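Exercise 7. Given the encoded structure of a 144-residue chain, write a plausible sequence.
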């Protein structure tokens, strides 16, 4: 897919050659990832994933597809910021944030109430009745 090398330097400004080469590499990477994803059936892939992971996959797929459409619009001279694809990307991003919150809550450590009460009980100082009498005797000696 050597696009940047196939086009002569006269057809585009030389200042953007590096950008075009990077873009070509990115397109190649996307193409390879898509081929990998398409080699496994969707139902087969979803069977191996937890429900939360399935949601993440669906959202990333939808976001990627809409992002690619955004780029397509830009290449056609259409302002994607004024196209409904912008609202769709925002909607998907909202759901991605919700899934992230759920995943974060799932990762958060659970409170072991028994361990917490033992920790607090042992951390707090409780005077012993014997210690109180000893300290009272010590006060009397100091006063005498």
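Solution.
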């Amino acid at each position: 897919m050597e696009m940047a090398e196939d086009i002569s330097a006269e057809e585009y400004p030389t200042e953007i050659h590096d950008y075009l080469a990077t873009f070509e590499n990115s397109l190649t990477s996307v193409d390879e990832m898509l081929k990998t994803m398409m080699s496994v059936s969707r139902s087969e892939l979803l069977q191996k994933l937890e429900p939360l992971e399935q949601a993440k996959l669906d959202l990333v797929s939808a976001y990627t597809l809409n992002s690619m459409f955004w780029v397509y619009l830009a290449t056609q001279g259409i302002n994607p910021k004024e196209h409904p694809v912008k609202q769709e990307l925002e909607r998907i991003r909202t759901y991605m944030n919700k899934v992230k919150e759920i995943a974060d809550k799932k990762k958060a450590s659970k409170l072991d109430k028994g361990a917490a009460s033992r920790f607090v009980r042992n951390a707090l100082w409780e005077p012993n009745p014997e210690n109180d009498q000893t300290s009272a005797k010590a006060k009397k000696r100091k006063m005498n």
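Remark. The radius of gyration is 32 Å. Students should compare their own answers with the one above.
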